[in-house]
């Protein structure tokens, strides 16, 4: 195909314009013949694209009930860039996730766009290249060039890392890894630290409760406690747990996520009716208090609650989702759904927040003033996806361990919510392609 007037021909110009628009990462994909507006653009055979691209809420697509190709969708904040550096929104751009394969594709990138490289993206011509810039404010900027463009020859020197090749990255994984390890080494060398927590304005405050290990580490890293769906520190999720300081894969359970149910009696009727039906009187004898707790593992009935954790719509043998409306479910003896965590909501949380995670062992001091110190050996996990999370749950490596209570149940009920999915440290390798155990001290 002849060069289009809308495409740039020099890589340095593309890079300059992308950076002017706030791009922190620039990647490109060599388009296959099937990468077009009819067949969508292939982004990978797992969910790893979700760790690169910013996206909106994941939801189950109900528009094709007669189709065997069940899918999730998520809107993309996508813009096309023309040869002058102008940006034009593609309002219908979206990710499509096919869990049965699994596979991720991009579609809708031409519909409703005032400017778009339609000539290239309605074609099956070989040699086309799509560049994608990811901005600091979580937008995606796209630009496409053809095989005869001099820019395509400039890109030949860049190695592919799977589907994408990286032109530049503001902070590479290696950079953030080094910064993280340097900071954890500094914290280890501090020895015993008084328990503390950052307030909403970033000021360190004393913290006297018994669960101060995580808050103290976050405070030392400058991380303000929050419930958002982003990693804690330079793109790394931070997980502290009580363990031997020389072995981050030892010790007590680690809380991976604390999502609230998105369906079932818990969501539809509320926590008070839920706990009246499935909770139990406080075992220490506190009056008018009902609890809902205990370890719930896949396929096992929990004695205190009478509920069994299932993976509705997931096949543990093939390790694939076959029902996009399914989820992790607590079921009663009569088959009622007490609580559901739909796959669509968990998939979004897991892939975005846990792409890279650091596991840091800690020890609590013996004194009356709570103190903590942190290990000289840490574990770094990378290369996860939601399929690994579900597989680990089916193997009982991950389990549900709530700490929910309702006080004054018969008068003015006061509820405390705490849903937790947890894992024992030896099973952490089940969640990642790579787990490194690293000594911070040479």
Automatic annotation (TrEMBL):
This is MvaI/BcnI family restriction endonuclease. One of its GO terms (molecular function) is endonuclease activity. Keywords: Endonuclease, Hydrolase, Nuclease. It comes from the Bacteria. Residues 182-432 form the MvaI/BcnI restriction endonuclease domain. Pfam families: MvaI_BcnI (PF15515). The keyword Transferase does not apply. The keyword Ligase does not apply.
